[in-house]
């Protein structure tokens, strides 16, 4: 970001403004490209890493417990499950905060993507919009956030934006 002193600001504000459509289109295109050049903020990458990392534990799986009960009744051995050590459960407030951040990132990506890719990624953006509009049950929040994070990463990969 550039700081502008009072004299430079007064000079810029005193310049004539064009009402021609072509000039306004060029200005809008320049502003959009400027936004695209700014890229994605680091806090989005932090949220993506948090959701996709080992530190988030999904809610207890009711189906797995039901299946275990069925296997015990049939006399079959229980499957071995990998335990996550020191994984903290995702609180509903935290899930809502991360989901809101991903929704804002989706809006930003919708504005930026056309200027950063050669071919418009229609399928990836449709998936991203569908996940943005989805409101999962609290017990499905972690799975939803992981799907959402993977969809965001797919678009970022197409843009060539490295974390």
How are the secondary structure elements laid out?
Elements: H1 6-14, H2 21-38, H3 42-52, E1 56-57, H4 62-74, E2 88-89, H5 92-116, H6 122-133, H7 141-159
Parallel strand pairs: 1-2
Characterize the overall form: elongated
Summarize the main sheet: 2 strands, parallel
Structure summary, number of beta strands: 2
End-to-end CA span: 21 Å
Helix and strand content put the structural class at mainly alpha
> How many helical elements?
7
Percent helix, as a range, is: 55-70%
> What is the average of the pLDDT values?
77
Q: Indicate the low-confidence ranges by residue numbers.
A: none
Note the run of SSEs as H and E: HHHEHEHHH
Spatial sequence of strands, sheet with the most strands: 1-2
Q: If you compute it from the alpha carbons, what radius of gyration comes out, rounded to the nearest whole angstrom?
A: 23 Å
Q: Per DSSP, what share of the residues sits in E-state strands of 2 or more residues?
A: under 5%
Description:
The protein is mainly α. 66% of the residues lie in helices and 2% in strands. The protein has 7 helices and 2 strands. It has helices spanning 6-14, 21-38, 42-52, 62-74, 92-116, 122-133, 141-159; strands at residues 56-57, 88-89. It has a two-stranded parallel sheet. Strand 1, helix 4 and strand 2 (88-89) form a beta-alpha-beta unit. Helix 2 crosses helix 5 (92-116), helix 3 (42-52) packs across helix 7 and helix 5 runs parallel beside helix 7 (141-159). It is elongated, with a radius of gyration of 23 Å. The mean pLDDT is 77.
Question: Can you summarize this structure?
Answer:
The protein is built from seven helices and two strands, in the order H-H-H-E-H-E-H-H-H. The chain has 163 residues and is an all-alpha fold. It has a two-stranded parallel sheet.
């Amino acid at each position: 970001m550039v700081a502008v002193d009072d004299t430079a600001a007064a000079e810029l504000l005193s310049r004539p403004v064009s009402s021609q459509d072509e000039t306004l289109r060029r200005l809008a295109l320049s502003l959009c490209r400027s936004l695209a050049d700014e890229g994605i903020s680091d806090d989005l990458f932090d949220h993506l890493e948090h959701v996709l990392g080992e530190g988030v534990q999904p809610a207890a799986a009711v189906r797995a417990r039901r299946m275990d009960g069925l296997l015990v009744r049939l006399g079959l051995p229980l499957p071995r499950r990998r335990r996550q050590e020191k994984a903290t459960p995702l609180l509903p407030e935290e899930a809502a905060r991360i989901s809101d951040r991903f929704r804002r990132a989706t809006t930003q990506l919708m504005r930026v993507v056309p200027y950063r890719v050669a071919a418009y990624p229609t399928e990836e953006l449709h998936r991203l919009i569908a996940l943005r509009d989805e409101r999962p049950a609290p017990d499905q929040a972690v799975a939803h956030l992981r799907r959402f994070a993977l969809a965001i990463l797919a678009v970022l990969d197409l843009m060539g934006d490295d974390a």
